[in-house]
Every structure is written in structure tokens, then in C-alpha cells.
From TrEMBL:
Keywords: Signal. Residues 312-422 form the Pirin C-terminal domain. This is Pirin N-terminal domain-containing protein. Residues 1-24 form the signal peptide. Belongs to the pirin family. Residues 168-240 form the Pirin N-terminal domain. PANTHER family: PIRIN (PTHR13903:SF8), PIRIN-RELATED (PTHR13903). It comes from the Eukaryota. The lineage of its organism: Eukaryota, Sar, Stramenopiles, Ochrophyta, Bacillariophyta. Pfam families: Pirin (PF02678), Pirin_C (PF05726).
């Protein structure tokens, strides 16, 4: 019998003994330290019209644990980066293949259930070689109604006032000034979304949500849970900055991929050339053109056309080689979801990039070659996400879930959250015109 579909275990109510345990845990020194850290990392949201007031993480609600551990750079960290806000210098003696400027490992933060593989990998981006990408988070979770520990853990979290511990996801929180792509991987259960635009939807494996936060939107997102079986969810969430001229665009939400009106563009076009080991079948390679699909969906939704981004999700069988065009002045970053990638170069030895690592590319060529040098069957398939785009070359002020160009604009956004005007786009545009002379009357309206 499939254990996922067997009878649901009944959980007893929290006993007096468990209440005593909670009180004892609250008094322990390590909980006091955790509580102190939490108060520093979180701040309450001001009242939002017709939206439930909940806590929001100062570094972005969708990446709670990432920011709490200092992974996401605060807005002033970008100012300290001398390369940020300018086009990366083009290397002399350009070669055909771009070389790897760095291979980086990232924190693997345990989330529920950590003992069974639950984790989030937050990748903080934003350097000159990575912008306009701000953040990449790789989530993997599962929830089982028979789990005897989940209920008590949620009760403890609630008793201690820890945000997002007592819910399966992220309660209402605001965004402004950037695009968000939430891409649920094939075979996963769903992600439930509700927003201040009136939208509500659960989208599942092989589908993605594209959200232009623009002048401001408030939303919540929760992992799909069921009472009759376990649910498994794996997804990528990517934050992509908007140019100053588009930060007050009208908010828009659209969906792409399986089960939507915007099917994926698979392979072909600019998705690159493939060379496979003769022993490998052609079906051992696939490329999903996420970026081009998003561009079409944005046009369909009537949203302003942003500077183009290229997001390619590729699976390469053992012995396979993938060559993709990568304009010299575009940023480029490769994330390895599964397997081991070998990146070819004419200036250095091949670079090895392992699962959950990233490779950032230097601007010294016009193409990228990724190889799967492993042998064997499908278990050794290489699964990668390639992000490329033309840098915006603008200053970035990152204030948690708000991404603007200046500190003054961040202050405006948080003042509007406090006084309840955050979702009033006309008011926000008028205030922006007063705050910055960059916007002419024509741009403001």
C-alpha cells in the first residue's frame, strides 16, 4: 500500500504536560538568544487596507531563513561594491568561450523536515556580473499529515512568537520595484497564492508565476498541504530588478507553463546546440526556455516590456555537451540543481561546479559550454539553471521586500506602509515625483 494514501493519523490535543514543556523551553538561555536575534531580524508591517497584518522579514518574506542568517545583502552593501552600477569591464583578448570568474557554495538552510531533506538554498546576487538578478532561492519541502512532530513544533513557534513557523508558507507581505518568478518544478505538488489584486490560484509542477510588483502589491504564498497524503514541493524563486523607469508600473500577475494559457517554449531558437555521447539517446537532453515564455506572457498581460532576460532550465544526459550563445556584455550565472557540471574555457582549465553551487562568468567571450562528464544512466543527468541578462547599470537600494534606487525611495515605501497608502499607485507616483527629479511629469503619469 502506498503510505502517502494510507489513513491519516489522529493527533491528540496539546496536553498540559506539553504546555509545561513549551514554558520550560521559553525560559532556556538558547531560546532567549534566538528570540533576541529574531526581534532584530523581523519587523511588523504597518496596517494594510483589507489585508491581514502579519510580520515581514527585513530581508524578504519569501526567503525568511536566508535573510535571518545574513545571506541577503542589505541595500548599503551594494553601495560598497565598487563594480556595482557600472557595466563590467570587457576583457582584452576576447575568446569565443566565456571563462568562470568564480565558483561559489551557498548556505543550505534546513527547513521542515530537515531530517528528510527539507532545505532552502538562498543565493544572494547583485554584483556587476550577476545583475539585474537579485536573488535565487531553491526550496525543497514536504509535509505529511501523519507527521507527529510538525504540530508540536508549530505550537512552540507560535508560543515563542516566531514568524512563519506556525504556518506552511508566507503570510501577507509587500513588494515593490522588481519582478518575481516562482517556478514550481515538474512533478511537484502546488504553491497557493493570493494577492491584493484580487487573484487567487494554486499552481503545480511544471508551472510558474510571474509577478510584476511595480508600484506595489501585497500577497501571501503557502505550500500545498493535504489531509489524505504527503505533499512534496520543489521550486525556484528568482527576484529580477526593474529599471527606474518601470518601478512604478502597474502590478501584474500572470502564469506560464503546464496547465496555463502560456505553454513553455521547449528547446529550439536560442536554447543552444547539443552534442551527446553516441551511447546516449536524444531524449536525455532538454531545454526549457523560461525567459522567452515569460516575455510572451508579459506582452499578453499588457505589461511594459522590460529589458530582456534569458532563463534556461536544461537537463543534460551523461556525456552530453551544451553550447549556448552568451553576449559578452551580458551577465551570466549557472546554478547546478543536480549532478556535476564541467564548464569549458579557452583561458583556464575546465571548472567543476557541483550540486547547489553557482558559477559566475566573466565578460571575456560570447558563448558558454557546459558538459556532463559523468558516465552511467539517467541517475547521472545534469540539471542546471542558466541566468543571463543585460545589466541595468543603475544604483540599487534593497530594503527587504522593497527594491528601489535610493534610500529616500525606500523611506517613502515604508512610510506608505505605515500610513496605509502603499497600494495607492497614483499617490505613490506623485510622491516619487516629489522625492526624485529623475522622473519627469510624463514619466510620473
Amino acid at each position: 500500500m502506498d503510505s502517502r494514501n494510507s489513513a491519516v493519523w489522529r493527533r491528540p490535543r496539546m496536553s498540559a504536560l506539553f504546555i509545561q514543556l513549551v514554558l520550560a523551553v521559553q525560559r532556556s538561555p538558547w531560546i532567549h538568544a534566538l528570540s533576541t536575534m529574531t526581534k532584530m531580524a523581523w519587523r511588523p508591517l504597518p496596517h494594510l487596507p483589507q489585508i491581514e497584518r502579519r510580520g515581514v522579514l527585513s530581508g524578504g518574506a519569501s526567503l525568511a531563513t536566508a535573510v535571518a542568517t545574513g545571506v541577503v545583502q542589505p541595500h548599503d552593501a551594494f553601495a560598497a561594491d565598487e563594480t556595482y552600477g557600472s557595466t563590467p569591464a570587457v576583457s582584452e583578448g576576447r575568446k569565443a568561450l566565456r571563462s568562470v570568474s568564480s565558483v561559489d557554495s551557498h548556505p543550505v538552510i534546513p527547513v521542515w523536515p530537515s531530517w528528510a531533506g527539507g532545505r532552502v538554498v538562498p543565493v544572494s546576487l547583485g554584483s556587476a556580473f550577476e545583475e539585474p538578478y537579485l536573488l535565487l532561492a531553491h526550496h525543497k519541502h514536504w509535509f505529511d499529515p501523519r507527521d507527529p512532530l510538525r504540530g508540536p513544533f508549530k505550537e512552540v513557534g507560535k508560543a515563542l512568537g516566531l514568524p512563519y513557523v506556525d504556518v506552511e508558507g508566507f503570510s501577507m507581505h509587500p513588494h515593490r520595484g522588481f519582478d518575481v518568478l516562482t517556478y514550481v518544478l515538474d512533478g511537484s505538488d502546488g504553491f497557493r497564492h493570493r494577492d491584493s489584486l484580487g487573484g487567487s490560484r494554486t499552481y503545480r509542477g511544471g508551472a510558474a508565476q510571474w509577478m510584476r510588483t511595480g508600484s506595489g502589491v501585497v500577497h501571501e504564498e503557502f505550500w500545498e498541504t493535504r489531509q489524505d497524503r504527503r505533499t512534496d514541493v520543489e521550486l525556484f524563486q528568482i527576484w529580477i530588478n526593474l529599471p527606474a523607469s518601470m518601478k512604478f508600473d502597474k502590478p501584474v500577475v500572470n502564469y506560464v507553463g503546464i496547465g496555463t494559457d502560456n505553454p513553455w517554449l521547449e528547446g529550439g531558437g536560442d536554447s543552444g546546440d547539443l552534442q551527446l555521447d553516441q551511447a546516449q539517446p536524444a531524449g536525455s537532453f532538454s531545454v526549457r526556455d523560461v525567459g522567452s515564455t515569460l516575455n510572451l506572457a508579459a506582452k499578453q498581460a499588457g505589461a511594459g516590456v522590460r529589458p530582456p532576460v534569458e532563463i534556461l532550465h536544461a537537463r543534460i544526459g551523461p556525456g552530453g555537451k551544451w553550447k549556448i550563445k552568451s553576449p559578452q556584455k551580458h551577465s551570466a550565472l549557472l546554478y547546478v540543481r543536480e549532478g556535476v557540471a564541467s564548464i569549458q574555457s579557452e583561458l583556464q582549465q575546465p571548472s567543476t561546479v557541483r550540486a547547489l553551487q553557482t558559477a559566475t562568468f566573466a565578460p571575456d567571450g560570447d558563448s558558454i559550454v557546459v558538459c556532463n562528464s559523468q558516465n552511467g544512466g539517467g541517475a547521472n543527468t545534469l540539471d542546471v539553471l542558466l541566468l543571463m541578462a543585460e545589466p541595468l547599470c543603475e544604483p540599487v537600494a534593497l530594503g527587504g521586500p522593497i527594491v528601489m534606487n535610493t534610500e529616500a525611495e525606500l523611506n517613502d515605501a515604508y512610510q506608505q506602509l505605515r500610513d496605509g497608502s502603499f497600494l495607492d499607485r497614483d499617490y505613490a507616483i506623485r510622491q516619487q515625483a516629489k522625492t526624485s527629479r529623475r522622473y519627469s511629469s510624463k514619466n510620473a503619469y
